[in-house]
Amino acid sequence: MSSVIPIQQVDLVGQPIVNYRDVLSGKEIAAIEHECSLYESRPAAAIDALQIVQSERRWISDESLYAIADMLGMSATELEGVATFYNLIYRHPVGEHVIHLCNSISCWLHDYQTITEHLSKTLNIEFGQTTKDGKITLLPNVCLGCCDKAPALMLDGELVENLDIKSIDSLLQGLRGGKNA
Predict the structure, then answer these.
(1) 96 secondary structure, DSSP code
(2) Per the annotation, does 107 bind a ligand?
(3) Beta-strand pair 97-102/136-141
(4) Does 146 belong to an annotated binding site?
(5) CATH code assigned to 9-85
(6) Is residue 143 part of an annotated ligand binding site?
(7) Is 10 helix (H, G, I), strand (E, B) or coil?
(8) What's phi and psi for 99, nearest 5 deg?
(9) CA angle centred on 58, ends 56 and 61, rounded to 5°
(10) Of residues 60 and 10, which shows the higher confidence score?
(11) What pTM was computed for the model?
């Protein structure tokens, strides 16, 4: 899944213990330290720390997870629970752009299936996959909270509402630098 983890030792359950300074960049460490200063306990900054590292690396590798856990003074298992609970923390590599297609009941009632089929066919991928050029990852999302503007998706953290085939094609063309998807 990731590069070789610089293991110094393992904990009681066999998880690697790493020194975060061997894995995280100075920029990441400084940003995480700032977030930790805003909370009463270091583990409370777990989501922020995961987001900081992900913003630099696009996903959280095992190596990064162990390093963040070390820095926050928590177990890797505890941090893994946080990371896998939130669908905006990626534990596998993703493309340069990530599309979260809302699959709530409102979106289903407003042509979700047609949008899904068009995205899959146009990108030549299914949910959970990334295009061969590494540009776009397509993921489902339980609800984006914009049911009054369904169907909707989130692209790189920005909501796109009232989707139709034309708006999807325009969006994909923009992602591909004006080239046909």
Answers:
(1) S
(2) yes
(3) parallel
(4) no
(5) 1.10.10
(6) yes
(7) strand
(8) -105, 120
(9) 95
(10) 60
(11) 0.82
